[in-house]
Design goal:
Length: 533
């Protein structure tokens, strides 16, 4: 099961920034997965998930796993007062209780962890700016905790930066937790099975992961989706005492923000969506869009390496052929790594490559890892793979990627059978022949998860006013073409294009920083199709 997700900061939140902002998205295009070695704040994107069927055992042809759910009653939700506890350096934290199930507002509650970085200019304070780093599955409190390292001074002066860990994530309780050891599920697998037994083993791994997620998070899984997180945002707005509120989301945070703006348009003061995917694409379209984006970035990386003799993977100017030969070699004979860890097989290698595609600042690390693997040392590629999966120095993992998959499947009504998933491989290979190896199996990402109770709504943003949508020219995770479709889907989406080879554009240059400042502070919306170079 080659799952993909892109990252956000791990719970330790190390090395948040190398530039003003380096935020990365997760891939859910289910053949590729990765996380970069130097770990800044990273994001994941559920739009890239390939959903699968409810059960491989049942040879069902159904295309929807949606079940009817009672309508939420938000007006009946009692909004508690927030009790803030100082954290230091202008930040404080609070906990917010919200209904687990909004159709039963008097029923069981869950607790959201909230962090606020107070506006530095109290007299010029505009209000709160809700922020989200992406995912789903990653906590957002980190963005408020480290706000001075992420946001421009103008925003820090005028807004309380308020980040929260969405339901099921981070320090919110209960947090989704499925497994403890990732290696059996994501590293010790053969993604190019040659026998029926090997294929059954991959299906069994996918089923075991889903079964554990459902079993250990009973009662939470079905209510973990984006619609409910958007409802949580409205309760948070009310708890903060604001009639309208501003929002800034990255990657999947764009999808969350657009969902919130669609459900609660009258409460939107302003909204910035940076690194957005096509909200109307089905599972196949989303996966193809993202696979194509990552394949294009890999092609650029290899071309640059071939033309630069100083590239560690130069291979006499033919890095492309050397890469393909190396992947075949690792599939047949995985390269040894450190003692007690899995060798670098094809799954690990592809995960590591995808991790490095999130920003060209990671490309020197990938060069060295590929060159070492050619010589029989797979440690560098395993390190990239581990970073993607949020492996900590002590060998433990956070729960982010478990929450990522659980939330993604709660958002997705479509359920394809195992056979239907396997039948998609040729389409994947047509757009990403290097990242989708020959002989790969289906991904079965949501195959064994329960039917979606409350799939994500259609995004329109009707009545929310102008919403700024930012895309970069070389974004592999949410390609610019997908971001353009998000802007088109919104009632008044204003597309801003940033010239950069990375995921998300804020912080790349002064042009985009000033544009975001002007919009969020002065409510001066940019013209559609503005370019920042």
């Amino acid at each position: 099961m080659l799952s993909t997700c892109g990252g956000s900061a791990s719970l330790a939140y190390p090395d948040l920034m190398t530039r003003r902002l380096v935020l990365y998205v997760a891939v859910t295009a289910v053949v590729v997965a990765s996380c970069g070695a130097p770990q800044p704040v990273r994001l994941m994107s559920s739009e890239t998930t390939v959903s699968s069927s409810q059960s491989a055992a049942k040879d069902s042809n159904q295309t929807s796993g949606e079940i009817a759910a009672p309508q939420p009653q938000l007006e009946d939700v009692v909004v508690p007062d927030l009790e803030w506890t100082p954290l230091g350096a202008g930040t404080d934290s609070a906990e917010l209780d919200v209904p687990l199930d909004y159709s039963d507002p008097d029923g069981k509650t869950i607790t959201l962890y909230v962090v606020r970085h107070s506006a530095r200019d109290e007299g010029g304070r505009i209000g709160s700016l809700l922020v989200n780093p992406g995912g789903p599955g990653f906590g957002g409190s980190v963005l408020a905790a480290f706000a001075p390292q992420i946001y421009d001074d103008a925003l820090l002066d005028r807004f309380d930066i308020v980040g929260w860990d969405p339901r099921g994530t981070g320090l919110s309780t209960p947090a989704i937790d499925c497994i403890d050891d990732y290696d059996p599920f994501f590293a010790e697998i053969d993604i190019t099975p040659e026998t029926d037994e090997e294929r059954r083993e991959l299906v069994a791994v996918a089923q075991e992961f889903a079964d554990r997620c459902v079993r250990t998070n009973e009662g939470v899984t079905e209510h973990a989706g984006t619609n409910n997180s958007a409802r949580d945002m409205d309760v948070l707005r009310r708890a903060l005492g604001e009639e309208t509120i501003s929002y800034f989301g990255f990657s999947y945070g764009s999808e969350l923000g657009a969902t919130w703006a669609t459900l609660f348009p009258d409460t939107v003061r302003a909204a910035v969506l940076d690194g957005a995917a096509d909200p109307n694409a089905d599972s196949l379209e989303s996966s193809l869009q993202q696979l194509e984006g990552f394949e294009a970035s890999l092609t650029t990386f290899l071309q640059r390496c071939s033309s630069d003799a100083s590239c560690k993977f130069h291979n006499d100017g033919n890095a492309e052929a050397a890469f393909e030969a190396l992947m075949e070699k690792l599939d047949a004979n995985p390269a040894p790594t450190s003692s007690g860890r899995p060798p670098t097989n094809l799954a690990v290698a592809i995960h590591g490559v995808i991790e490095a595609m999130y920003s060209d600042s990671y490309w020197p690390t990938l060069e060295a890892a590929l060159a070492a693997a050619e010589l029989g040392d797979g440690s560098g590629l395993l390190a990239l793979h581990d970073a993607y999966y949020q492996r900590q120095p002590d060998g433990t993992y956070g729960n982010e990627l478990e929450a990522f998959q659980t939330i993604s499947c709660a958002d997705t009504a479509e359920r394809l059978s195992v056979a239907e998933e396997d039948a998609l491989i040729d389409e994947y290979r047509a757009v990403a022949p290097r990242l989708m190896p020959e002989g790969a199996s289906g991904q079965y990402f949501c195959t064994f998860f329960p039917a979606a109770r409350d799939p994500r709504i259609d995004i329109t943003g009707d009545g929310a006013g102008p919403i700024v949508v930012i895309g970069t020219t070389g974004d592999p995770a949410t390609p610019l073409s997908s971001t353009e479709l998000m802007a088109d889907a919104l009632d008044d989406g204003r597309l801003v294009v940033v010239e950069a080879d990375q995921h998300t554009g804020y912080g790349v240059n002064q042009c985009i920083n000033e544009l975001v400042n002007d919009y969020l502070i002065e409510l001066t919306a940019p013209a559609d199709d503005t370019m920042c170079r």
